[in-house]
Amino acid sequence: MRRLVAWIIDGLPFDPRSRRALDETLLDWAHEEAEAGPGRRWLVGVSGLPAVGRAAIVAASRETTSVPLWWLLKRAALFVVLPATLLSLPMVLLLLGTDSAWRIPGVLVLLMPEWLPTVAPLGLLLCLMWRPRHVQVQPVGTAIIVCAATLLFLGWILPHTNAFLVAVYGRPMADVLGPLSLRYVDEATLIDLLRSINHPGAVSALLRISGLAALAATSVVLAESLHRRFAQAGLDRRCSDGLHVAERHRVGDGAGRAAGIFCDCRHSVGASHARAAPGRSDSATNGARS
Predict the structure, then answer these.
(1) For 12, which DSSP code?
(2) How distant, in Å, are the alpha carbons of 160, 185, 204 from that of 150?
(3) With helix as H, strand as E and coil as C, how does 89-140 read?
(4) Is-contact 220 124, C-beta < 8 A?
(5) Distance (Å, whole) CA 245 – CA 31
(6) CA 198 to CA 193: how far, in whole Å?
């Protein structure tokens, strides 16, 4: 059991502080299991599993409260809300040739949430993967927040938004906008789906909502993994470039020293020739006189 729990904990992207706390808890479990006899190992396992679970809950809670929410909301507005609005715009433009053209702003606001579940996983992946180096994002806490926000949005906000769209603008307006705007109208809230769990449609709707929430949380974990990999690759590239620069400087210094030695040799040779030149000239002059 301990190995299975350790394998699951190792697969979760906790930050270094949470990882140290979980590793110490697992080491204590392994130490107690090694000291216990064969007949008491099951008791150590029963007591060790709640300890690891309690440490994981505390670590996840700490990471959830440490998430930079304001930065995350700004990036989500850029990478999620703006693309959803742009995708809703072609559907709203169908109203330009009708008598309901003045309703375009309100319909755009009500149709934009329908694209959010489709755009959110890719938008979260991009905004968390391409973030500045100084922004520290706790992946487990961010995944918990994103999963809870997705469940809240799909379970309560989106059904009420679509019901309000049909109630205010009517079924003819929905027929003009096309079937894409009606794909969530007949869905009930999450509470209604849980109450009618025996109905096959309720089960499929619950599976779809939970699947979209899990997909959004998975995109956060994947974005953190890609961000760390790209950061490590950039660090390795900078280290490699630094080594090449240092090697060039080392070779350049060696070449400079060699050139200096060569210049010193030339200078010393020139000086010796200069000192020997007067002697030779004097001998030549004496020979000419003789």
Answers:
(1) S
(2) 15, 17, 17
(3) HHHHHHHHHCCCHHHHHHHHHHHHHHHHHHHHHHHHHHHHHCCCCCCCCCHH
(4) yes
(5) 49
(6) 9
Residues with Cβ < 8 Å from 6, sequence gap 6 or more?
Answer: 26
Q: What is the pTM of this model?
A: 0.69
Contact 114, 162 (CB under 8 A): yes
Contact 190, 151 (CB under 8 A): yes
- Residue whose pair of structure tokens reads 């216990």 in the numeric block: 36
How far is Cα 250 from Cα 208, in angstroms, rounded to an integer? 62
Structure tokens at 42: 């099951």
Pick the closest to residue 187 from 208, 169, 215, 173 (CA basis).
208
| In the chain, where the domains are located | 2-63, 67-242
Q: Letter for the amino acid at 77?
A: A
Output the tens digit of pLDDT for each of the chain's 290 residues.
Answer: 788 888 888 888 888 888 899 999 888 888 888 887 777 777 787 788 888 889 999 999 999 998 888 999 999 899 999 998 888 887 777 666 666 666 677 777 877 888 888 899 999 999 888 888 788 888 899 999 999 999 988 888 888 877 777 776 655 454 545 444 434 334 578 888 888 888 777 788 888 888 889 999 999 989 888 888 887 777 667 777 666 656 565 555 544 444 444 444 444 444 444 444 444 344 434 443 43
Looking at residue 155, its amino acid is G
